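User: I want to check something. If I give you two sequences, will you return the structure for each one separately, not as a complex?

Assistant: Yes, each is folded on its own. Here is the first sequence with its structure:
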Amino acid sequence: MAILNNSVILFSIVVLVIEAREARILYPDEIEQMQNAFKNYQSWLTICNENEEMPYYNETLKDLQCYPILEQGPCEPNHWLILNEINPIFAKCVKEPCDDTPFGQVLFEGTCKNIKDQSACPPSQEILPDPFGIGKCGCIEGYLQHFHKNGTYSCYQEYLQGPCSSGHQFILPENSKELEPICVPTECDKNETLFMDICFPVPICKDEEFVRFIWNTNKTECDTLNLGRLGVFLDLRQFDLIGGIRNCPDGYSKDARGNCQKKLERRDRTNKKRTTVNYGRGRNIRGVCCNGR
C-alpha cells in the first residue's frame, strides 16, 4: 500500500487528538511523535489488510493487533468492530444495532433484518453488512459482482458466461488477492462451461434459479434459489447439493465440510474471510478503507 499523503496524515492526527479529547495546540516534538506513531499504524494497516483485517489497539498487549471487522474482536460484549465512516483507515467498536438472533441481524433500510435474507433483494442477492455495519444487498455465495459503466451492478454465477464473451466464463482467479472476477476461455464446446476441469453442458435457467453441477454424471440442472429466507447460504461449489458426494475425482480431496477441493491448488489464505462482508465496488477491505492503496 502506498504511503498516504500529508493531508491525510495531518487529518488523521487531528482525529486522534479529538478522539483523545485533547483539543489543544501541539508542540513540534508532539507532532513528530504522532507522525511516527501514524507511520507505525500504516505499517500495521498494510499487514492487517493482507488478511482482510484492520489494526486496533489491544489494551492488554499495549500494542496494535489485527482483527476482522464485523466481529466482537477486541470490543465489549454485544459490540462489533467496524470501519470509521469519517476516516475509514481506522476501525472502531460500536454497539450492534440489532438484537442477537441465531443467524445474526443487521440494520437494513432502518429495520433489523436477518443477514443473508433474500426477500428484500433482487434475484441472486441477499442482505449483507458492509464494512460500516450497514446492511445492503450483495451477491449470494457462488455469485460474482460485475459493475456496469453506469455504476450499477449485476450478480453472475461463477463458472458461467456471465458478462463475458462467448466461449469464456466468469471466475475468481486462483491465488488472487484482489478478489477481482475475470473472464477466461473455457476451451469447451459451444453451450458448455468448465467446472472442476470438466466441461459441463449449460442449461437455460430462470432468474430465480442456479445451475447445479453434478460432477459424477457430468450433467447439470436448474435448481431454485430458495434458502435465503432461512438465513443460510448456498455453497455453489458443492457438487451434489441434495445428496452429497461419496468420492472426489482424481486431484481432489474432501475438506472438513465434506466438499471436494483441489489438493494442491488452493486459493490464497488472504481470500478467506471470517465474516461475509459486502465490500461493494471496493471488492476487499483495502479497496474500502484505503482506496486500494
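And separately, the second sequence with its own structure:
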Amino acid sequence: MQFDEHGTTANFFWKIQADDAATELRNHLVEEFQDEDARYAYADSFLNTRVAAQIKALREQRGLTQQALAEAVGTQQGGISRLENVNYSSWKTETLRKLARALGVRLHISFETFSDLLDDVETFERRSLERATFAEEMSKNKLIAQKRARSATHLWHRDQPATTGRMMGGETKHRTNVNPQVDVSSAAWLWDRGCDHGAEQSITRRN
C-alpha cells in the first residue's frame, strides 16, 4: 500500500478501522441492552464516568488546579479529587451547580433515550467534554447577530424603492439608501421575510 507524504491513505484506513470498531461496539451494546438490568447498569456507569471526566476536562481547560477549583466551590482538594474519580456515584445537584458556576458553564439535567446513550458512547472523548468560556461564546454569538443584522439590512434595502418621497410642510423630502438600525429581533424577522420572499419568487418562476 502506497502512502502520500501527508499520510492521507493512512488516515483514510485509520478512519475505516475506527468506524468499524464503533459499529462493532454499538452492535454489542444493542444486544446487551436487551437485558433491562444490564442497560440501566451501563447507563449509570457511563453517567458517572462522563460527569467525572468532564469535571476534570473543564478544570484543566480553564487552567485550574484541584486546589483552585476546591476553593472556588468551597470544599477541600480531596473533595475535587473524589469528584473526578470515575467510580464516584454520590452526585448532589447542589454540588454540581457550584461546580458549573466555578467552571463558567451551566448545569443541564435531562432524561434521554438509550439510543442517545449509544451516540454518547461513540462520541465520548475529551474534545466532546470541553466547553467554551462565557466570554468566548458571547463573542461568537455577537458575530452571529452582526452577520444576521447585515443580511437583514441587505434584504431591507432590496425590498425598498430606490427613493422614497414624503410630503412635509408642502415639500417633498427624499430618502436614498437609508441605513436602518436593525436590532437582533428585527434582523431575525427580516431574515425570515427574505427567505419567504425568495421562496415566493421561486414558485412564481416555476409557474
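Because they were folded independently, the notes below concern the second chain alone. The first strand starts at residue 163 and ends at 168. The chain is about 65% helix and 5% strand.
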